[in-house]
Amino acid sequence: MIAAAPPIAVPAPGAAPDDAALAAALAVVADAAALAATPQDPGFHAEGDVWLHTRMAVAALVADPAWAALDAAGRAITYAAVLFHDVGKPATTRHEPDGRITSRGHSARGEQAVRVALWRAGWPFAWREHVCALVRSHQVPFFGVDRPDATALALRLSLSLRHDWLTVVATADGAGRRCAAPGDQARILDQCALWRTWCDELGVLTGPARFADDHSRVIYLGDASGTRSPAVPAYDDTVAEAVILSGLPASGKSTFLAAHPALPQVSLDDLRDELDVDPADDQARVIMLARERAREHLRAARPFAWNATNLSRSLRGKLIELCRDYRFRTHVVYCEVDPAELTRRNRARPEAARVPARAIDRMIGRWTVPTLDEAHRVTYQVARDDGSLAWPPPPAPDAR
Known about the structure:
2 domains, 5-stranded parallel sheet, 8% strand
């Protein structure tokens, strides 16, 4: 079911974008003046600043027949992704010693800014995460087919975004610019078309890759040799499952575990109490003890849960790697509530357990949502989700 009203106003196909309306829509995430004050390297952005490029990209999107052919949800999500795709540039743009202007890391910075802003703005979870995934990967079609791991990359990304939507976004980004060498722009657009064809041939253009089973997916995505086939089942030698909680403080992690009282848990909050360590102090002793307690369960092949915020992919990755070393399956349970409910729950905690607002703000700065390429399973316990759209992308109706 598609929601009748997307969370962003979308122009009709072929309509001329209104600059004031674009700036107002952008203001949910970023200031148009900040983008206008951010220069770009003239080699691939001879048109000028980031705001000018963004407006040109939106105009290219709205004029694209491929965008018009999408359903209402697809048009709304890709429109938002193009509008927000470069909001990370003001924070990452640098003037290099050789005179070039770079913005390395702007896609990841933009994804984080979009996630926080749209969470605070009340966007439903699935709509927001579709937009975030496209912002994060909007440049992939520019170079994807040339990478030695092009197949694995396409399959991995298909677990968190739709490639038909991604290529529409990337094409608008490529068309909405001027390059110093005209051939460069033509190459960008050719690469986008090739990426679409490549993903279509792999069967992941409109839905996620099909793997033999969850364990085979984990093994395939972790195989650096690139010699495995996603359709061939991998030998499953796992012995038990570790449940890894992820989410901001007061988002419902302990509530989830309360419904599973028989599952032993390693709780960082409990260990802080045991060691008398304040949450604002150095956590090295807490982490060391937590990992040792986890190893007790791992050595005994005993299912258990790790209860902590685990907000960044790198933190989750270290824990997941530890579990896999002991042949454990991993199940990430992600919890989320809206900002007002998060604040209410945090204030309702005993004073000693309350997390300072400034600490939560720091955590939000490294907040990512787990995806299926991280673990055997990911469960989303999300309060704000209107049910009108699925994320991650569900299998395409005609997928085989």
